[in-house]
Amino acid sequence: MRSQTVTYLREATFSALADPTRRAVLDMLRRGSLPAGRIAQAFPISRPAISKHLRLLRRARLVSERREGRNRVYELNPGPLKTVDTWLSEYRVFWERNLSSLKAFVESEYASEMARHSERKKSKKTVRKK
Predict the structure, then answer these.
(1) Mean pLDDT over each residue of the chain, to the nearest integer
(2) DSSP string of 64-75?
(3) What mean pLDDT is predicted for residues 60-75?
(4) Distances in whole angstroms, Cα of residue 40 to Cα of each of 25, 33, 46, 121, 128
């Protein structure tokens, strides 16, 4: 049962992060808690649309909500982002390894090309002297 819950939360997290508006909301909340109205003012879309984005972020547990008087205040919950980071770390290792191989290949090709270029220069000088 636990693995199904973890899988669901991971899928909900990735789904929530797929939208640029929701990512922008998370970026805003990195600086601190904000009321829903202030979040809505930052976007050229309707308040109901922002409410829907906030609801999806809540379901993915990326934000928490509390009431302060008439306002709903949202705060970033970085916990689910750790799951994303863990998942990405596997790909980070893959890309670092492949980029290191690419770097070695490019440097080797560059050294070979420089050696060929140097040899061509020498042979041209030898031909001119004769």
Answers:
(1) 86
(2) EEEEETTEEEEE
(3) 96
(4) 9, 13, 7, 66, 76
CB under 8 Å, gap of 24 or more: what pairs does 85-94 form?
87/10
Give one word for 18, left, alpha or beta, with left for phi > 0 and alpha for psi -120 to 50: alpha
The phi-psi region of residue 69 (left if phi > 0; otherwise alpha if psi is between -120 and 50; otherwise beta) is: left
CA dist 3 and 110 (Å) reads: 49
Describe the chain by its helix, strand, coil percentages, rounded to 5: 75, 10, 15
Query: Tokens in use for 96?
Result: 């670092």
pTM listed for this prediction = 0.67
